[in-house]
Structure formats: C-alpha cells, structure tokens
Amino acid sequence: MTLGPVADQLTIETPEQTSLDFAVAGIGSRFLALALDIFIQTLIGIVVGVAASLMITGAAFFSPRSGMWVAAAVILFYFLLYFGYYAVFEIIWNGQTPGKRKMGIRVIKDSGRPLTPAESIGRNLMRIVDWLPGFYGVGLVCAFCTSGNKRLGDLVAGSLVVRESDLSDLKPISSALSVSVSPVPASFGTLGAQQLSPEEISLIDAFLSRRLDLEPHIRYQMAEEVLRKIKPKLTLPADASLSTEKILEAVAYERNSTRGYS
C-alpha cells in the first residue's frame, strides 16, 4: 500500500496483483460529515434531556436517591451518545455514520479492509484527545500534519477516511489478465465477451478482484449492477441456476482465453 505524492490517493495491491485506487477524503468533507453527525446528536440530546429532566423531577419527588440514580443514568447516556454513536454506526454501516454516508465517505483500514469492531471503538474513544482543547483542535492539527488527513484516532486504529466510489470509479491499474477466474462451463457456449469494451472488462476485473473485501449485501448488489451494465451485449444461456458472480467469472475467462491467456 502506498499513498500518492500529495496524500490524496490510496493505492492498494490486492492478492490478485491488481492495484485499486481510493480517493482520500479531504478535511472539508470530513468536517461537514462531523457537523451533520453533531447536529443529529444534539437533536437526540435535547429530546432525551427534556424527558430526563421530567423523570429526575418525578423520581426526586418520591425519593432523592432515585433522582440521583436517574441523573447518573442520563450522564452515562450522554457519554454513550457522543462516543458510542460513531462506533456503533461505523460497525453496523461498515465504516459510515449518517454524516459520512450523506457526504459519501467511509472509514477503512490502511490495507483497504473494513475496521474490526475493536478498532472502530478504539478509534472513536480517541475523540476525547482529538477534541482538546476544544472542537477537535488536536485532531485538526494532526490532520494537517499527517499524510491521509489522519487524526489521532486514525493513527491509533491504522484507519483512513476515503471517498466512496461508485461502479464507474472501479478502475484497476493492472490488466484484467491478473484476475483469477473459473473456466467457462461447457453448457454456456460463447457468451459474447468480445463485444465488451475495455472499460467494461476493467469494470468486471475491478469487481472480481475487490469482491472478497466487500460486505455480502454490497457484493451482491455490485455484481448485479455490473451484470446489468454489460448484459445487453452478452448472449446468456437459459440456465438460470448459476449466480451472477459465476457469470461474470465466465465472461472474464472467455475474454482472457480468446486473447491467448487462461
């Protein structure tokens, strides 16, 4: 893995010897994502605060000790709201919070793989330090001084925030010949892979080489989208028992074989 000369590009070498590029998210997009997340947290905090004040008043009316326990629970809730919010969303949304999703950015490992839950929790607990002396002062200085715009939490977790790529952005540097795919089943006949453009072949190559790093539902959706884009040029068999990925593998194999490679 290497970073570009101005730290705005992450290049990852996959096990299939294919290089994939990720655009590093800028400080501006990260700030806007953070602002939206803080806005959501603030709204939740206001609603809970109003409800909590009523609960504390009611509990204290019956028992002062009960009011203290409710107040302690509210303090714990606000701590979890501020720090747990980011970790929980990044775990269940594969590196995204509502703000990051809106801005089209995502947290990943420096290797290009998703963060583990422990890494996400550790990354977000460092917000305690990144916030100092106020409104991410330490975090901003760190982001300006490090390649990849990393705050302390990113340095601890070995993470990086990148811009989300759509299918049109999946362009591997190496040729499609490096992707390991299965032979075309005999029942398939000729699929018409030669009708595809170099860009469409590169799209298939990018998906096949990156698919193991994708969440299952994202992997399925991307496979369906790739096939949808190239399907009008293909001659597919009536056999519907094979998965979309197997069809894409067969198309890549046919294309490589007709060029004299396998």
Verbal overview:
- The protein has 262 residues and is mainly alpha-helical.
- 54% of the residues lie in helices and 8% in strands.
- The protein folds into 2 domains: 2-163, no CATH class; 173-258, no CATH class.
- It is built from 10 helices and 5 strands; from the N terminus they run βββαααβααααβααα.
- Strands 1-2-3 form a 3-stranded antiparallel β-sheet, with no helix packed on it. A two-stranded antiparallel ribbon has the order 4-5.
- α1 runs antiparallel to α2 and α8 packs antiparallel against α9 (216-230).
DSSP strand tally:
5
Distance between the first and last residues' Cα: 27 Å
- Order of strands across the main sheet: 1-2-3
Helical residue percent band: 40-55%
Q: Please tell me what the overall shape is.
A: elongated
Number of domain modules: 2
Number of helices: 10
Cα-atom Rg, whole angstroms?
Answer: 24 Å
Average per-residue pLDDT, rounded, comes to 77
Q: How would you spell out the order of helices and strands?
A: EEEHHHEHHHHEHHH
Q: Quickly give the structural class.
A: mainly alpha
Strand content: 5-15%
Biggest pleated-sheet summary:
3 strands, antiparallel
Could you list the spans in which at least 5 consecutive residues all have pLDDT below 50? 1-7, 14-18, 170-180
